[in-house]
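debug: dumping io for the single-chain case to check the tokenizer round-trip. Nothing else runs in this session.
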Amino acid sequence: GETAMRKWLWAVLLVTLALAVAGCGDDDDDGGDAQQAPAADPSEASGNVAWCIGKDTSGAYGTAIDLFKKENPNVNVRLVELPESADEQRRQLVQRLDAESEECDVLGMDVIWTAEFAAQGWLQDTTEIIEPRQDDFIASTLETAQYEDKYWAVPYHTNAGFLYYRTDQVDQAPDAWEDVYEQAGQNNGIVYQGASYEGLTVNFLELLYSGGGSVLSEDGQEVQVNSPEGEAALEFMAQGVEGGAAPRAVTTYMEEESRRAFENGNATFMRNWPYAFALGKESKIADQFDITTFPSFEGGEPASVLGGINLAISAYSRNPEGAAAFIDFATSEVVQKANFLESASPPCFAATYDDPEVQEEYAFASDLKAAVEQGQARPVSPVYSQISEAIFTNVHDALQGRAEPAAALESMSSDIERALETF
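debug: decoded output
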């Protein structure tokens, strides 16, 4: 129906948000000792709280505020909407934080900004909000809020990809990416996000992580991507295009182009985010596709890469008590369930996926929970935006046949090396 369609279209925008590349900010580390955010005690909280976050295209943020006000009449939360593009959001937040502006109390942040903002001294340590509730959250989502052994934000909405497949062309989705590509080659191909942008970084990492590789060492100081695992992942992707399992046009695709190709009947398989499920159910292939969590690569554990939004407290907030109370509430089950039902924003709160109402509304709730559980964070680094650019630019060169995979990997590794030296 039209309302279902409308309700889901916002998700297209969420993808831009979940995935856009953060530009390169000013990397001077002048953060002194970070403040510890107060524990969330609503009875102590009062006053005004400004919540700076991207556009409320789905109504989810307004709902979170309304539900909070009912319980906490002494705190007045006001939504300050930033532009829709994640690049622009980041630019506006960086501008304010750089100027030590007190305008924002709660910051809505793309999961990939945590390390950069924490390293700059712009965030308060939220460990005391998370620790009493650690078990509420899906463990993988907490990794996106961590930097150097502390929590600097609280997971709000998450996201993880699915493998979509045509049920009229294959009996079931294979358990290994190798078999997916083999069947794609025999049928109508596979589409994914192969353009030169953040989405390609994510698609590459899903293979790299599953094959046992990593981009950086645990401490974030060493580059480890130029490895046999890195080469296997890149070789596999490049061969996929060269051998025709993926169309050449995939090197121009973002989420929407992939979705349209799949819905128009031009692919047997597609890698995409959950938002494409309901839209697909409104399309002409509605009864001819299904989804599954990702297969494995090189015999490793399947891996997805998390998108989403975390909530943080600005180091310059004049009302950290109010901010902490609001964040604690916005990440609680009541809001997470309301947001999921209303706008399909995937919750970080584990129990929400098992709720009977949620299960009835979303056939894929259990699959999505499994996808988030097998999720991993993108490299946690204050210079993540440059690292990602080094990844997607060089992967793109290999996909287009402009560089041999081994050479592209070499170049990726030295680009990341340089990025690390700037911080």
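debug: round-trip ok. Confidence is low (pLDDT under 50) at residues 5-32.
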